[in-house]
Amino acid sequence: MPHLFEPLTIGAITLRNRVGVSPMCMYSYSDGFSNDWQVIHLGARAAGGAGLVIAEATAVEAWGRITPHDAGIWSDEHIEPLTRVTRVIKENGAVAGIQIAHAGRKASTNRPWDGGTPILYIILVSTLYGLKIIPINTVFYILIALYYLALYLYTKYQLPEIAKS
């Protein structure tokens, strides 16, 4: 640990120390636009002393998001809000980074706290949009469908019987 708080130069970039904040999926955005949440969240890490702060998975295409709540950079309109985040990180002494992302076949699920389940209508459209975006684990999707079928059948046939007893 003796070198942890010493500056580190990589090429033309110098970090004030070797503490880095890795990208975290926060699922806190609308239409891919960075917002106050990202400014506060990442700005606080920079203000706290990290030498490098990397913004979370930022989708290069709307269809390539893990969830509909991911950050994006597929439109020129996304640049200004991301510039704001970068400015706050730099003003607080850290170097800003970004994780460019495309979820590919794993795209189009709900946020983890919303079940993390596939969003079937988006998967269908994504599949029609380009066969490269076929769900990665077909068995998973079949199991999800069977789960919802079982839940429906239980609700329709079993619950009324339980209510009678």
Cα end-to-end separation: 66 Å
Please count the beta strands (DSSP E, at least 2 residues each).
6
Number of helices: 4
Instruction: Work out the strand percent.
Output: 15-25%
| Biggest beta-sheet profile | 4 strands, parallel
Q: Find the CATH superfamily of the largest domain.
A: Aldolase class I
For this structure, what is the CATH class of the largest domain?
Answer: Alpha Beta
Low-confidence stretches: 130-134
**Structural category:** alpha/beta
Q: How would you sum up this structure in a few lines?
A:
The chain has helices at residues 36-47, 79-91, 120-129, 138-164, and strands spanning 8-10, 13-15, 20-21, 52-59, 71-72, 95-101.
Could you give the topology of this structure?
Elements: E1 8-10, E2 13-15, E3 20-21, H1 36-47, E4 52-59, E5 71-72, H2 79-91, E6 95-101, H3 120-129, H4 138-164
Parallel strand pairs: 3-4, 4-5, 4-6
Antiparallel strand pairs: 1-2
Helix pairs in contact: 1-2
